[in-house]
Design brief:
Elements (H helix, E strand, L loop, with lengths): L6 E11 L5 H6 L1 E11 L4 H4 L8 H12 L6 H15 L3 E11 L9 E9 L1
Antiparallel strand pairs: 1-2, 2-3, 3-4
Helix pairs in contact: 3-4
């Protein structure tokens, strides 16, 4: 078997947080969604069946949840903090794709969500 690429992902993580530029957003809060994809070489775990040979999903979630709980004005700032934290906490992670959306943002438009997306290399 030839493995070309291995990734771990967490899709549609849902958080209630107080991110936003407007005072109302900061006070009332909103629902945010996070999708994350991590390039991690977990080929050793295919045979060992040992979590120490990969990255633990629950620990990834805890790091993201910690950063989502810190209020910020911009989702750009939040996504930057999350990426820096994951690179610091999880040395095996080589690349990160992150997408953060805010449900029904106050922008005078009928929209399900708006947000940011980025792809970062270590």
């Amino acid at each position: 078997m030839q493995i070309r690429k291995t990734n771990i992902f967490l899709k549609n993580l849902t958080f209630f947080a107080n991110h936003g530029v407007g005072e109302q957003e900061k006070k009332v809060g909103n629902v945010f969604y996070v999708d994350i994809k991590l390039k991690v070489n977990f080929t050793k775990a295919l045979t060992t069946d040992d979590v120490s040979d990969t990255v633990n999903y629950a620990e990834i979630y805890q790091s993201i949840a910690h950063e989502m709980a810190i209020p910020s004005q911009l989702l750009e700032h939040v996504s930057g903090r999350i990426v820096r934290r994951l690179f610091m906490d999880f040395p095996p992670v080589e690349e990160i794709k992150i997408k953060i959306g805010k449900r029904n943002p106050p922008m005078g438009a009928e929209v399900e969500s708006a947000g940011v997306e980025m792809h970062c290399l270590r």
